[in-house]
Amino acid sequence: MWWRDAVVYQIYPRSFQDSDGDGVGDLRGIAQRLDHLVDLGVDAFWLSPIYPSPLADFGYDISDFTGIDPQLGTLDDFDQLVAQAHERGLRVLLDFVPNHTSIEHPWFREHPDWYIWSPADGPPNNWVSAFGGPAWSRDVIAGRWYLHSFYPEQPDLNWRNPELVEAMQNVIRFWTARGVDGFRVDALDRLIKDERLRDEPPATEPFPLPLHEDAAGLARLHTTNQPEVRDALAKIREAAGDAFLVGEVFLPTNEYPRYLESLDAVFAFQLLFSPWDAAPLQQAIADAAGYDVAWVMSNHDFDRLATRVGPENVRSAAMLLLTLPGPAFVYQGDEIGMANGPGGSTQYDRTGRDRLRHPMQWDATPTGGFTTGVPWLPPIDPDVRNVEAQRNDPESLLNLYRRLIDLRPGLGSRFRLLDAEPGVVGFERGDHVVTVNTTRELRPAPPGDVVLATHEDPELLPHAGLIVRN
Ligand code: NOJ
Known about the structure:
alpha/beta, TIM Barrel, 24% helix, globular, binds 1-deoxynojirimycin
């Protein structure tokens, strides 16, 4: 299976490369930059949603599952992108968003029973949206209340309705027939909700992943992670055939088994949210043992890697991410150390995620080579960090990513966490030992021949990572 140890590069299409000067990235732009992915050595890329969208949730509110947003291109551009990717040996993953559509999707009017409605003239329960506020809104046209686990512009689909299931299976088949190699599947723990729409009781213990304050006070018995989700997932798998399916499941790792009955992998969110500290990092890795997880340390929803771990740790974070066994996902820009930006003069995302989505920085020009026009979000610091400069610098972060990706296939498959020095994450991969020093202090280096070091000195310097071979 090609994805077993694959490195998958996440492209945020609006911010990767603009080809027509309108300031918004597009599919032709992505095709122009495929050589960057080849140069980096990744196996595949995942495109965040490229479908027509009114942009309430920047592409995750989809008004046509089998179209391309005109700002991003056409189906013809898409076919060409897939062909060009495949010619270069790159696999293509799309974002499949099964939980909801845009409120502007024609289905919402044509097939209201494909959605979830309140039986009362008002919210039937106390459920809250993941972004805060009630999870029910009144549709002024129908005069009824519908469920939305996310923004009100994103009504939840009813996966208990076989007609809807079939429609969504057809969406998957549409894309696999066009050559798509897999899907990142959105918000899966939400796919099935309690059929009786029972109230959530108050939370009795803190949820281990970050939640909006409105959601944090409630237990999560009826709004997420229902046992019947496995039936819905089986239907997704049935349509996807042997395409790679990686799930976004916002739950602690021990809840993954029912998802892994049908999915190939689930994102290891415990690692993404772990503080940059050896003990919780080791714990997140240990908790994932025995599950097929996809490692990920940042994406378009949460703080960028450089912001979360601090710029001094981006090299060792890359080493950790890319030496763990199993698929690893790299968010565009992390390979050059981009941090959160300031956002732009217009706030696009209502929950403040613009700062994670600034344009990719290709060169030192004012727009970073992203566009010849006015970028939809301003570039952050292309003069300080960009692909071109880092490509020419053997010691750059970009070149460290390349070396790590190059080394991956040579790491042994036998994996064992080590009882390392305090503040150090350590594990064996066959005859290689990986150590990552999360502290500000020097730590003893493990014995063996140095294969790759994040810093020049082959000691375990503060913030450094080291791969040795015995
Ligand atoms: C997760 C996506 O990554 C995020 O961007 C989106 O807002 C929600 N799911 C809802 O689709």
